[in-house]
Amino acid sequence: MFIQTEDTPNPATLKFLPGKDVTGEGQPPVEIARGGDVSGAPLAEMLFMIPDVTRVFFGADYISVTKGDDAQWKHLKPAVLGAIMDFYVAGGQPLIDQLQAGDVEERVYEGETLEIVEQIKELIELRVRPAVAQDGGDIVFKHFDDEDGSVYLEMRGACAGCPSSTMTLKSGIENLLKHYVPEVTRVEQYAH
C-alpha cells in the first residue's frame, strides 16, 4: 500500500492520501480534536496514540493530521504513515458511524432570508469546499445574520489555525459571496 502525502498551506497540518475511501463520496467530513470522542472513529483513536497529534480531519479520500507546536514532521510523519498503513492493511474502516463532530442545531430561515441562505450554501458547496478540500481542509456554513448581512463560516481540518485562512475568508470567500449575493456584507470566522 502506498500513501501519498501533501503539504497544506498550514505548516502544522499534513494531508495523507491512502488511495482508499475515508469518509466516502457524499458523506460529510469529520473533524476530531485530541480528547474528543473517538468511539466511532478507530483510525482517529490510533492516530491519537501518537504523541503530538492534536487534530485529525477525515475528508472523502484523505486524512489531514495536525501536529502540536513543538513537534517536527520529520519525526512525526513516519509514525502517522505507519499507523494509517497498519489500519488499512488490517481492513479497518476509518469511521464506524457517520459522526458529524460538534454540529449545533440548524437555524431556521424563512422567506427571502431562506433564499439567501440557500444561495450562500450552494456557492460554498460548489465553489469553495472543493478548493479548500485540495488543501486538506473544509469550510462549513454556520449562519447568516440578515440584520447586518454577516455570514459565519467554520474552518476545519488544515484550514483551522492556518496562517492564510483569514486571508482566504476575507479576500476569496467574502468577495465571491458579495458578488453573487448582494445581501452579504461580510464573512466572519465562526467562534465556538
Protein model, in words:
The model is unreliable at 99-104 (pLDDT under 50). The protein has helices spanning 42-47, 73-89, 111-134, 165-180, and strands spanning 4-7, 13-17, 30-33, 53-58, 63-67, 137-145, 150-157, 186-189. A five-stranded antiparallel β-sheet has the order 1-2-5-4-3, with helices on one face. 33% of the residues lie in helices and 23% in strands. The chain starts with a strand and ends with a strand. It has four helices and eight strands, in the order βββαββααββαβ. The longest helix is centred in the middle third of the chain and has 24 residues, at 111-134. The protein is α+β, with helices and mostly antiparallel strands.
Chart the SSEs and their pairings:
Elements: E1 4-7, E2 13-17, E3 30-33, H1 42-47, E4 53-58, E5 63-67, H2 73-89, H3 111-134, E6 137-145, E7 150-157, H4 165-180, E8 186-189
Parallel strand pairs: 7-8
Antiparallel strand pairs: 1-2, 2-5, 3-4, 4-5, 6-7
